[in-house]
């Protein structure tokens, strides 16, 4: 008799090893006030520039950035697996490296807000 988690993982076609959790896009979200693409890009760049100073490995932060910016979820999953990142939340907002360091990603680096203003 297996545990529920491993049974579900097998049904989903995912591996049952650590970090084998399926990843998905984050749920829709809204910024506190409408923002432009330029403002969003600036917020993202600022986050990625400062994230390594909060702990963890620079290589893992770089892999998380590449996964967050990947064109599709399969590519993101390959990056996550290759870096040995353990996915705690399927939307990548909480991950760990193999040494147990925690990495938290804000929604704004993972997806666009619903109230993004399109610049003309």
From TrEMBL:
One Pfam family, short name: UBD
Residues annotated as domain DC-UbP/UBTD2 N-terminal: 21-119
Biased composition (Polar residues): 1-10
Basic residues: bias regions: 18-28
Source domain of life: Eukaryota
UniProt-annotated stretches for the region Disordered: 1-38
PANTHER family: UBIQUITIN DOMAIN CONTAINING 1 PROTEIN-RELATED (PTHR13609)
Name used for this protein in its record: DC-UbP/UBTD2 N-terminal domain-containing protein
Upper classification of the organism: Eukaryota, Viridiplantae, Streptophyta, Embryophyta, Tracheophyta
């Amino acid at each position: 008799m297996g545990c529920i988690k491993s049974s579900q993982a097998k049904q989903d076609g995912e591996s049952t090893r650590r970090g084998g959790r399926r990843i998905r896009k984050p749920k829709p979200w809204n910024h506190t006030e409408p923002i432009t693409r330029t403002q969003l890009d600036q917020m993202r760049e600022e986050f990625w520039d400062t994230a390594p100073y909060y702990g963890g490995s620079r290589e893992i932060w770089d892999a998380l950035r590449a996964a967050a910016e990947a064109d599709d979820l399969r590519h993101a999953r390959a990056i996550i697996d290759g870096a040995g990142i353990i996915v705690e939340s399927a939307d990548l907002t909480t991950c760990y490296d193999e040494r147990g360091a925690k990495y938290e990603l804000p929604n704004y680096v993972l997806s666009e807000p619903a109230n993004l203003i399109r610049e003309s």
